């Protein structure tokens, strides 16, 4: 029903069409309502028409039933009569089943092409949110990123970040003086959170080849925009990973796409299903980041549509930027529900004769209160609207259908095989290996030097011992020689004495001679003695 400038949403009871102006589609929007009120069908119908107008779409398939958008609906489907009746009620005379070109993605690489990004591209802020870190731990994480950047170390996957954190802990004293306190306790806490993230499958999200955001923005050979469907049924078991991934994707779109101002139609439309997960327990810094991205990404031609059960799940600063609104029924069972109804009613531009608060609780399945931006930028008065029926299948695909469509994907083979190039883990491991080898060499050299020193010491000790033993031996030899000399001297003296003594015969002869002489002497002494004396004296004087 809509022309090329708009997307037909549905019609009021009196046949007034409600059309989303393509030039205002990047002013963002909200699709809200309780479970089972028709949000999924509304989302699917809008995505179909964006694609038909050549606008690429990204949406998360939380329950697994949005994948059916890739297949045309069937007249044999149990909902066929309901859809045909609704098409007639809203005045879609040309309504017919048709398929929509789709590319399937999956962070875990099972139900679609893997989506990866690097740890560096995710950044410390989103990672801290993903791991639920406190301010101190987030500060340590930022130091690790800063240090890795300065050292030229690529942080591509979780092992890179784990190795970088371990390196920071090992060099905590040096880093603390340069960047601030880096406690091993904080590093340990971050490492534990990384292990939990890895256990949830987060390790599959970080790595290469990283997603080229331009692969989300393209058209098929018929000029229809690709509908990028993220398999999020398993991902919802890790709500922080889901919310952080979608916020990262928004940030990547904002940083990558050029400024286009107000294009005739969006460059990409982004549907954020289960949007409350983005804001649950989110610190103010993160909420501010979301607000900034949502506010500024409009100029990149990207429209962001939050899909949630309760409109109060969206912070006011962000909700105020959502110009296109489709509000399905809410139930006033609790005080919170009543508050949500009042809040939703107050956000719409009043319409004469319509009690918005009352109407929200009375809406039937497939009905919604709709207010869309008009060509002049003003919101249209809220109108109770019957939503148009989808043209594609409402429901999941079979494994065979999904595999066939995946094989025909324009990015088939581009992301399916992971790449692990040299990055922080390998470089730090190599450095650690070099350090360990150097330490081993130093240790071996120290052992060798010690052995040589010990050998030299032993040799010196042995030489000293030998010297002492030789000196002792010399002294002993000298004492022995002296003793020998003395002994020989005593022997010679004894021998001389013995030699000087007369023999026995000589003693007997001398004795006999003395006896004889004594006898003769006594006889002649008197006669001869005087003569002898006189002769001797005379000779003496004569010689004078």
From TrEMBL:
InterPro entries: HerA_C, P-loop_NTPase, T4SS_component. Transmembrane segments: none annotated. SUPFAM superfamilies: P-loop containing nucleoside triphosphate hydrolases (SSF52540). Residues 10-451 form the Helicase HerA-like C-terminal domain. PANTHER family: SLR6007 PROTEIN, UNCHARACTERIZED PROTEIN YJGR-RELATED. This is DUF853 family protein. It comes from Alterirhizorhabdus solaris. The lineage of its organism: Bacteria, Pseudomonadati, Pseudomonadota, Alphaproteobacteria, Sphingomonadales.
